[in-house]
Each structure stands twice: as C-alpha cells, then as structure tokens.
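Hi L.,

As promised, Phosphatidylinositol transfer protein N-terminal domain-containing protein:
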Amino acid sequence: MKVEEYQVAQLYSVAEASKNETGGGEGIEVLKNEPFDEHINVPKEPLYANGKKYTTGQFTHKIYHLKNKVPKFIRYMAPKEAFEIHEEAWNAYPYCRTIITNPGYMGKAFELKIETIHLEGQGNLENAHSLSPEQLQERNVCLIDIANNSHVNSSDYKESEDPVLYKSEKTNRGPLKEGWMSTVDPVMTCYKLVSVNFVWFGLQKRVETLIQNQEKRIFTNFHRQVFCWTDKWYGMTMDDIRRLEDETKQELDEQRKVGCVRGTVAE
C-alpha cells in the first residue's frame, strides 16, 4: 500500500483490534484522543526521525487492563496495580512515538518506547531513526515478513488473516507470494525502534527479552490484519476514522464490563 493509505489503514485496524482485545474486565480504556502541538500535550522529548522534526498530530492516552494477558510467573508475583499499563502516543504521521509505562507499580523502573517512521520502499534504509553510532552498535535488526507464516504462532493463525491467501476485491492487491516485497507496487515499510527498560533485580533480562518477543508477535499479527482488512478500510477518510474512534471508545467502555477475556494472551 501507499504511505498515505497506511495512515487510515493503521487507525482503522487499531480500533478494530482494540475491540478484539477487550472483554471480561480487561482490555483497553481510552482516556484522551485529541490534537497536540508545541503547546498542548507536548511530548517530553522532541519527535525526530529520518532527519526531520515533527511538531503536530494526534495525542492518545490509554490504559490497558492486562492481568490475564501476562505470563503466569509475573501474575503470581505482582499486585493488581502491576497490570494497569498506560500508553501515551504522539501520532505525527508519518512518524509516531508510543510510551508505555506502569506508574501505579513500577514507576520509573519500567518504560517501553516504540518509535515508528513510515516510508516508501522495501525497507532498505539503514538508519531511518537517525541513531547515533553508539546506538547503532546496540541495535538488533529484525525483519518481519507478514506473508511468512513460519513467523506466526500456531495459536495466533487465522485463515481469514493470512496474506498468502487474501486478495482485495477493491484494490486487486494480494495474495502475497514468496518474494512479494521486491515485486509488489505500491510498497512501504514501517521502521520500528523498540526500546525497553525494566529495572527489577533477577528478572530484568528475562522480562526485557519477553517484552521484545511479545512486541514482535504483536507487530506480526497486527500488520497481517492491516493487509487482510484492506477492503474494510480502503476509501475511508480521516473524518471517517475520527468518528470510528469515538464509537470505539464507547464500545470498549461497555465491552470491558461483560463477557470473557479476549485476544492475545501470554503463553
């Protein structure tokens, strides 16, 4: 898809995925969804990637209620407050920064930062996030191919969300066959920089590794959905998206009160 198409595709899919992850007292609560600029909802650090500074966009603040979505060994050790995760995001598309914290329990001892720059092309940029030489030495690069089913957990696989099988009726895009990244047009890449800090003696390395692996799992499943939902979001405008987000907030508030736990559960 084109970079400008992905903005709508992502926001539509976030709304739909949020509903799929919410129920039974758990899931996503939207506190804020409003514009930001250099005076309102300002991020702590400037938004900067690929040689450019970003100063305006949409700010969201969400709470994730996650007790049954974390590994059992953490569930048994930690109190209720540990499972209320706050997400603050500054979407200055094509750049976005997301900060995930646990202020009620971990405080400053935990922070997960996800920075994304969305660019045309096949993922060939070596330093899309303008990292320093020292940061580049620490960075591990992971290529996520959404059409490679070997990257998908068996418990996550859905035939309806398999890009190898999906063909869009509205755009005639797909199915994605082997080597698709070098042959399809249009094509774009989401360059994601994931930084995690979890300060807990004896558990730090284990939990940081677990979080990185879980983020890879989430990115893989989410972007398979984004592509396989093409006919649902294609043709929508940003006004349509804002209306959908308002409706989704109300639906999430109701969904958390009923039913059973839904969506991605830690293995």
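The mean pLDDT is 91.

Thanks again for sending the construct details.

K.
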